[in-house]
Design goal:
Residues 1-21 form the signal peptide. This protein has 221 residues and is an alpha+beta fold. The chain folds into 2 domains: 23-60 and 76-180, Jelly Rolls, CATH 2.60.120.10; 187-219, no CATH class. The chain has 4 helices and 10 strands; from the N terminus they run H-E-E-E-E-E-E-E-E-E-E-H-H-H. It has helices spanning 2-16, 184-189, 197-204, 208-218; strands at residues 76-81, 95-101, 107-112, 118-124, 127-132, 139-144, 149-152, 158-162, 168-174, 182-183. The strands form 2 sheets. Strands 1-2-9-4-7 form a 5-stranded antiparallel sheet, with helices on one face. It has a 5-stranded antiparallel sheet with strand order 6-5-8-3-10. Helix 3 packs across helix 4 (208-218).
Amino acid sequence: MKCFHFLVFLALALAFSFASADDPSPLQDFCVAIPEPENAVFVNGKFCKNPNLTVAEDFFFPGLNVPGNIGNRVGSNVTLVNVDKIPGLNTLGISLARLDFAPYGGLNPPHIHPRGTEILVVVEGTLYVGFVTSNPNRLITKVLYPGDVFVFPIGLIHFQFNIAKTNAVAFAGLSSQNPGVITIADAIFGPNPPINPDVLAKAFQLDKDMVEKLQKLFENA
């Protein structure tokens, strides 16, 4: 238990070392300007509470020691603690996540964080992790054991895969209060409305029937 607490503390300390990396940059996907404030209000981030009214609960989140539900099709769960969970994170440029993996095959599928670099520390188990560079694409991978740390640069496709016969647990710090996530397979085959299957058939050099089957698989994912 002491080792567990030390590693969690290490994850937090490492996360905070990245706090200045990205925010303030867009904290939503876009921030469309409006001619008059009375028409609509949408700020790049969140409005601030009167500091005289803040309480300890504004900076607190309980229960990150509780395992997430890994009974799903990919065998993993990410418990994200961002500004929506801890209001006090607003403007601080940092968030944290717990990652749980089922025994061999638990996968956090290829995805990107459009607004944050990720630094991950393994607490239990053995993870095969990696990311892909921008064009020309190069895959960089590593097998991680408890206590190992790995960095996933902002905006790059990355993944984590449990290659052990036991559960795996990791913690990750992200350099944004709202790093966002785009899971590649879901974004390509499961958006609403769907992408024209002719586009995907051409892009992936697949039969249109196969594309439509994949879209059917991911539409309710």
